[in-house]
What we know:
Number of helices: 9
Largest sheet: none
Helix content: over 70%
Number of domains: 1
Structural class: mainly alpha
Distance between the termini: 41 Å
CATH superfamily: Tetracycline Repressor, domain 2
CATH architecture: Orthogonal Bundle
Strand content: under 5%
Oligomer: single chain
CATH topology: Tetracycline Repressor, domain 2
Order of helices and strands: HHHHHHHHH
Radius of gyration: 18 Å
Amino acid sequence: xxxxxxxxxxxxxxxxxxxxxxxxxxxxxxxxxxxxxxxxxxxxxxxxxxxxxxxxxxxxxxxxxxxxxxxxxxxxxxxxxxxxxxxxxxxxxxxxxxxxxxxxxxxxxxxxxxxxxxxxxxxxxxxxxxxxxxxxxxxxxxxxxxxxxxxxxxxxxxxxxxxxxxxxxxxxxxxxxxxxxxxxxxxxxxxx
Length: 192
């Protein structure tokens, strides 16, 4: 695998943070360059495909990190416990950011899936990797593959939807409610 330059890495991570807080259309090159402390001109050098290329790379970077987090949170504990940990951490992050920092993938999906095949594909791959990580964790608890995948879809859709509601309401309530309900479903479907 080729080595990624430090300025390129900083630009990708800055873009992911900015997408999380303000979305894709509101994130401009000058802001990414400033936030990443990269020299002006590095955007053209590192991303000849423009902002869309940067977006795809930032989404992939964010998705990989979050997939690792899912696998870590679900490792060795009942999925109901993992869901409670997930929603509590998400609620704390939202509150700390003054309800600004949501999921960069969900935000970009809502904004661009209709207008950019490259970004839509990157979002679909990100969400698919998270669903696969969840399905793997549920399958490890003995659920057949089809049931694990279906339940993983429910968990992911529930939490992503709760993140949107929590941001809109500026309240952890939706995340807590969804976490409680998902945990109940998981306890009913997966024995200890």
